[in-house]
Amino acid sequence: MNKLISEVKKSFGELLGCDPEVAVRAPGRVNLIGEHTDYNDGFVMPVAIDRFIAMAASKSEGEEVELHSLDYTSSVRFPISHIEYDHQNLWSNYFKGVAYLLRQDGYKIGGCRVVLKGDIPQGAGLSSSAALEVASALTLKSLFALPLPDKKMIKLCQKAENEFVGVRCGIMDQFVSCLARQGSALFLDCRELSYGHIPFSDEFRVMICNTMVRRELASSQYNIRRGECEEGVRLLAQKLPGIKALRDVSLDEFLQHQHLLPQVVAKRCRHVIKENKRVLEGTEMLKKGDMHGFGRLMHLSHYSLKEDYEVSCPELNCMVELAESTKGVVGARMTGAGFGGCTVNIVHRDRAEAAQRSISSRYKKEMGVAPEIYLSTPAEGALKGVFL
Ligand code: GLA
């Protein structure tokens, strides 16, 4: 069993004097390609990474919920029938948001005791929040035997983040944290919520390079980009009636009507429309095992995010350039919302550790900060409530 699961189980016993009933874990993610497309009803291709949030839990008498975070060495208690946003213990709001929405949907949940711990770097754009939501939902589903199908649970987790935590995000992160498969990338159609698992060659590793830049601008700029995409749809709909999202606009249609759009809006739309195409092409390449072709698409994606979507930053660009000049790296680009956080890279497994060392020392020389670099293989989605 996973190390984190053993740790939360053991701590549950030490803190609460008995064994937990269930344990779950949910992974973080990194997106290989398809950036800023999920909220445009488009396509994405993330993988789960082998970093997780784990929870051990038991039901309790009455209606009190007790959450014990081992990472923060702090505990939060609240009655399940009266859930309020916690301005001090921000980490607890993900569990609270999920519990709140489950109750709002009529699910019967009562008191419980939960111990949690994670090893997903926080604030780095690797979806520790989505993992926390998915782990919370699975814990409550398992403990109270809730009839909660996967896709409903995923949407509920997204809603918890949008409405309770107050961060607008698409569906990608929660989806992949729940339904990823080990050794595969996940292709997801964010409108239909249809998906497929595409085997990821074992000769390659996913390398995640953390610039160590906090994503200060990410949430305000994220909302601005969403607004610009919506404006693009509104204006293009004058000529293309029936379109609901940028997903519905082909590149030819865009090129024909782009003069209707303010320049900035046109650039945003061009990124999204071309990025959706890249995800579809990338899917075919990955299926054929053409990693170099896939790497070229990652390169194009990065430059589109830098020039057209304008969500990159000097540190992300530096990290991508360093990776692209490193032996064994076949693809590199920024990943996630942008303005800091991480790049995602595909590197040959025999070169992975040397690449990690070389990028690390060159980035430190250029930027004056030591980056963190994690190697991963595509991991399995959330473990669905292991009964102990
Ligand atoms: C953040 C959001 C995702 C997605 C990416 C950009 O990570 O949480 O839903 O929109 O940005 O691709």
Summarize this, please?
The chain is an alpha+beta fold and 388 residues long.
Write up what this structure looks like.
This protein is an alpha+beta fold and 388 residues long. It has two domains: 205 residues, Ribosomal Protein S5, domain 2 (2-Layer Sandwich); 173 residues, GHMP kinase, C-terminal domain (Alpha-Beta Plaits, 2-Layer Sandwich), CATH 3.30.70.890. The strands form two sheets. Strands 1, 2, 3, 4, 5, 6, 7 and 12 form an eight-stranded mixed β-sheet that branches. A four-stranded antiparallel β-sheet has the order 9-10-8-11. Helix 2 packs across helix 3 and helix 8 packs antiparallel against helix 9. The site of alpha-D-galactopyranose (GLA) has 11 residues, from helix 5. Alpha-D-galactopyranose binds next to helix 5.
Class from secondary-structure proportions? alpha+beta
Question: Quick one: CATH class of the largest domain?
Answer: Alpha Beta
CATH T-level topology of the largest domain: Ribosomal Protein S5, domain 2
Tell me the Rg in angstroms. 21 Å
Give the overall form: globular
* Number of separate domains: 2
Beta-strand share of residues: 15-25%
What is the level-2 CATH architecture name of the largest domain? 2-Layer Sandwich
Runs in which pLDDT lies below 50 for 5 or more consecutive residues are none
Oligomer class: single chain
Ions and ligands: alpha-D-galactopyranose
Largest sheet: 8 strands, mixed
Number of helices: 11
Please tally the β strands and state the result.
Answer: 12
Terminal residue distance: 11 Å
Helix content range: 40-55%
What order do the SSEs take from the amino end to the carboxyl end, as H and E?
A: HEEEEHEHHHEEEHHHHHEEHEE
